[in-house]
Specification:
167 residues; mainly alpha; Arc Repressor Mutant, subunit A; 3-stranded antiparallel sheet
Length: 167
């Protein structure tokens, strides 16, 4: 039992370190929320602004303001949905795709440098085994870091008014 507690505590610490390194490794002057948007779009390019704000756990108005700044920096493009003129979908530009790649690579560059190549391979194999034997993890394995559906500081359920608007 003691070994299990130690394992979970060590995992928690490495996870916290990874998140801290991710926050510290910013691209230019891009705030963390913009990095999170880049990560979401790199996995789900073309989603609606409403979906994006829901995934990030932020108000649609706040999301729209951040997207306007990203659009000014030519990282994203917003296009009217073909099926619903009231809806806008968000896409990465070429610069946004490159920026998302930089963000994706940021944590690995610094967190795991303390390990040898053999240790990295062994750790990767163990993590892959844990993921493979827990199928419920696969739906979240591509989720970016941040306040996603299972983030501990995100309130439960959809954003305020979300269900009322979608009935």
């Amino acid at each position: 039992m003691e070994r299990k507690n130690e394992l979970m505590e060590n995992y928690r610490k490495v996870n916290a370190l990874t998140r801290r390194k991710f926050r510290e490794k910013r691209m230019g002057n891009f705030p963390t929320t913009q990095n999170r948007i880049l990560m979401v779009l790199s996995n789900s390019d073309g989603i609606s602004q409403r979906e994006l704000s829901y995934i990030l756990g932020i108000r649609p108005q706040s999301c729209s303001e951040i997207l306007a700044k990203m659009e000014e920096n030519e990282l994203i493009a917003r296009m009217q949905d073909e099926d619903d003129a009231r809806k806008y979908n968000v896409f990465l530009t070429e610069a946004g795709t490159a920026a998302a790649e930089d963000v994706k690579n940021a944590p690995q560059d610094s967190v795991f440098d303390v390990l040898s190549d053999e240790e990295k391979e062994a750790l990767n194999a163990l993590l892959a085994k844990v993921i493979a034997l827990n199928p419920e993890l696969t739906e979240y394995d591509e989720e970016p870091m941040g306040k996603g559906p299972h983030h501990p500081h995100r309130r439960k359920g959809p954003p305020h008014g979300f269900l009322r608007q979608h009935r």
